[in-house]
Amino acid sequence: MIKIKPSKKLDSLPPYLFTKINHLKLEAYAKNLDVIDLSMGNPDMPTPHHVVDVMCDTVKNHTKTHRYPQAKGMPKYRKVITEWMGRRFGVELDYQTEVLSLVGSKEGIAHLCMSYLNPGDYVLVCDPAYPVHFNGVILAGGKIHSMPLLIENNFLPDFSKIPAAVARKAKIMFLNYPNNPTAACVEDNNFWKEAIKFCKKYNILLVSDNAYSEVTFGDYVAPSIFEFAGAKDVALEFHSFSKTFNMAGWRIGWVCGAKQLLYPLEKFKSFLDYGVPTFIQLGAVAALNGSQKCVREQAAIYERRMIKMVDGLNKIGWKTRQTKGTMYVWAALPENLKKEGSLSVAERLLQETGVVVSPGVGFGSCGEGYIRIALVTHDKRFHDALLRFKQFTKGK
Questions:
Q1: Mean pLDDT, rounded, for 172-187
Q2: How buried is 30 (Cβ within 10 angstroms: 0-12 exposed, 13-18 middle, 19+ buried)?
């Protein structure tokens, strides 16, 4: 066997803590343990029937869609996106120049980092964060400046705490609200105005990862960054079908913004991938053009699950609070478990009870002291999960 080392960039990535959790999960399944998997934000509800029907019909009866797709995205798909953005946010976009199809928003964000970053370029990343926000930077050779998300700040970054010397060197800022993993939502739109002002001042590309814009509760409505004056001068916004329409396995999303800011990513992708299969794009067209009732019904299910889980956890000493969006609960470790750490707690919880969660430290150092619970199992299972949490907490 030859001996060859991987790239220094790959080696520089921190250990992927979820790999160990996944290994323990497979061991539990092999032992026929009754596993309740609340670790990954992988929707348990199916893709809406009308979307599946369109895709199946297209694959079966329109064989031209089996050929290479347009890497940028077919015009029909991009046009429907701009129409949806107009209805949903009141935002005007040019489908020919201001929308780009993605093989999932996660992949798109990683590709964006490679499109823009030179070795040593600084990127402002929330901590904790969705892992690709920092892994994508590292793989592109960039440097991370962490913006702590703390409970006393409602899990929002404080731009005033970013040193001017760092801001002047920064090339990209990542924001993600409704937020994964903390489930925080921005309720004061001055936050977005401040972010735009900050990025304009320091010539920073502001990236809004809006994957959870449609998974919101009650009267809360998540905005688009482009609803705020000046955003088009500094921002790109990423959207996903994974959570909105339960299309996580389909791998399709989009990014939108000014032509000049999109172009580097478009150029990069033209060398790297062929784009999303045409039949999947047409399924996505059906999702955006069809009734959005299924989206609202799904959000109501997540809200019901969230309330049950938060109330149940609070009763047994896991301090957390209800949120206005996402499919997650961000739960602080009880006092008697804090010293153990989130990774060890997640491992023992799985081994001793069969409940799988994500350790907060896997999302960044500021995530230590928390676990993330994904609300992705049948409603009836949350009662069982809470009983196991109670047993585990008392056992310690």
A1: 98
A2: exposed
